[in-house]
Amino acid sequence: MNASLSGKNALVTGGSRGIGRAVVLTLARAGANVTACYRTESEAVRELEQELKEIPGDHHVVRADVRSKEEVDRLVEECRTRYGRLDAVVNNAGVISHVPYDELAEDEWHRVVDTHLTGAFLVIQAALPLMGEGGSIVNIGSRVATVGIPTRSHYTAAKAGLIGLSRSLCKELGGRGIRVNVVEPGVIETEEAAKLPKEKYEQLQARYRQLTSLGRLGTPEEVGGAVLFLASDLSRYVTGATIPVDGGI
Ligand code: NDP
User: Fold this and answer.
1) What is the mean pLDDT of residues 70-99?
2) Which residues are catalytic?
3) How many alpha carbons fall within 13 Å on the CB side of residue 245?
4) What CATH number has the domain bearing residue 167?
5) Is 140 in the pocket of ligand 1 (CB under 6 A)?
6) Mean per-residue pLDDT over the chain, rounded
7) At what angle do helices 18-29 and 220-231 cross, to 10 degrees?
8) 139 in contact with ligand 1, CB cutoff 6 A
9) Does residue 151 lie within any of the structural domains?
10) Which ligand 1 atom sits closest to the C-alpha of 144?
11) pLDDT attached to residue 10
């Protein structure tokens, strides 16, 4: 058993920035052919394409909104045409907002729940015909899903939903040799965190130095490491698991 993904094909949603970008690069460096999707055109998309050119393999960065069945079907069809088969599917695409429950508009509820939960439903359902024995589905949840946090009820509801989805699917798909797991990041230092005003950023750092056993925020690459474990044969007897990557909160 080893962590090589040589000869394997992976689909990662929301790969243009943050954790998704690190997951894409980690899987590609481990030998997988990786297709990543994003929703908005940006410099980050071009940079990812450039970075992937330096890594051997058949990699693609495709625009597809995971909330749209039509766009998800087109994304998976591109994987079918190019690879014929998918070995790993990582549902990472996500959005967040901080809104008191009394003020949470239905549109905002749908934007967040549809991106995290309906997006995962659509992607997994479309990808399943390309998956078989040894396949691995990794859903990126959140450490706050089962803890709760004020002003993020829509986000935590969607992330907790991913745990239920994964538990049921691990039972439904286990007979086909397909594993389904959740990775729950704690607070991860992405480009977004770095954009906070200096004072807020220092407050965040100080708070998590206190809160985590390891005394610091996590990096996107550290989440990528857990996803690589779950995508590879190293975890071939791990399914239905929820793995926190949170520095020991
Ligand atoms: P970012 O906001 O940095 O990146 C989100 C990615 O998802 C971007 O590539 C974005 O693309 C893409 N995306 C958003 N909406 C859609 C959509 N509808 N269709 C396709 N792609 C989409 O997020 P993070 O890296 O911080 O978070 C990644 C995942 O990890 C999320 O699921 C998040 O909830 C989870 N997480 C993050 C934590 C953290 O501390 N950062 C903690 C716990 C969980 P585009 O640029 O085109 O919008």
Assistant:
1) 98
2) 155
3) 22
4) 3.40.50.720
5) yes
6) 97
7) 50
8) no
9) yes
10) 43
11) 99
Range of 53's domain? 9-189+220-244
Q: How many CB atoms lie within 10 A of CB 74?
A: 15
Using DSSP's 3-state secondary structure scheme, residue 38 falls into strand
Å from CA of 130 to ligand 1 middle: 24
Nearest CA to ligand 1 atom 18: 65
The model's pTM is: 0.98
Q: With respect to residue 21, please indicate whether it lies within any of the assigned structural domains.
A: yes
Pocket lining: 188 vs ligand 1, CB cutoff 6 Å: yes
From 56-65, 160-169, 188-197, the region with the lowest mean pLDDT: 188-197
Q: Say whether pLDDT at 191 is over 90.
A: no
State the Rg of the chain over Cα: 17
Q: Identify which of 92, 112, 223 to mutate to test ligand 1's pocket (most ligand atoms within 8 A of the CB).
A: 92
Phi and psi based region of residue 108 (left: phi greater than 0; alpha: psi -120 to 50; beta: remaining): alpha
Does 229 have pLDDT greater than 90? yes
- In the predicted model, what is the mean pLDDT of residues 57-65? 98
The helix or strand, by DSSP H or E, that contains position 119, with its residue range, turns out to be: helix 119-127
Q: Is the CB of 6 under 6 A from ligand 1?
A: no
- 246 pLDDT higher than 90: yes
Q: Confirm or reject: Cβ of 122 under 6 Å from ligand 1.
A: no
Q: Confirm whether 215 is domain-assigned.
A: no
